[in-house]
Amino acid sequence: MRLSSILFSASALLIVTGTVLIVTAPSGTEGFGWFAYTPDSESISTPGWTLMSTRQLVGWSICWLASLILAVAVTHRLTRRRHRDD
């Protein structure tokens, strides 16, 4: 089996895995104790930003890794030398 075929297969598998992790992650924010801090626990408004869950972070990291592997596979496929039979 060629190296580029293995890399294409691995990146496809990782993209599917990462996407499944992102989609199946629970929606909402991670609780990290923001309102446990006394001066902020009495505030009326909440912060306007949210955090991703750990599963979403892992899913995005896997998709990022898969895109790097895919870039290596495409580069390998495009730059390899072809052998001529003379």
Secondary-structure element order, N to C: HHH
SS elements, strand count: 0
The percent range for strand residues is: under 5%
Indicate the radius of gyration in whole angstroms.
22 Å
Taking the sheet with the most strands, its summary is:
none
Tell me, briefly, the overall form. elongated
Question: Could you explain the architecture of this structure?
Answer:
The chain is an all-alpha fold and 86 residues long. 60% of the residues lie in helices and 0% in strands. It is built from 3 helices and no strands. It is elongated and about 60 Å long. The model has no long low-confidence stretch (mean pLDDT 77).
What order do the helices and strands come in, and which of them pair?
Layout: H1 3-24, H2 38-41, H3 54-79
Throw out a few tags for this protein.
mainly alpha; 86 residues
Short structural description:
The protein has 86 residues and is an all-alpha fold. It has helices at 3-24, 38-41, 54-79.
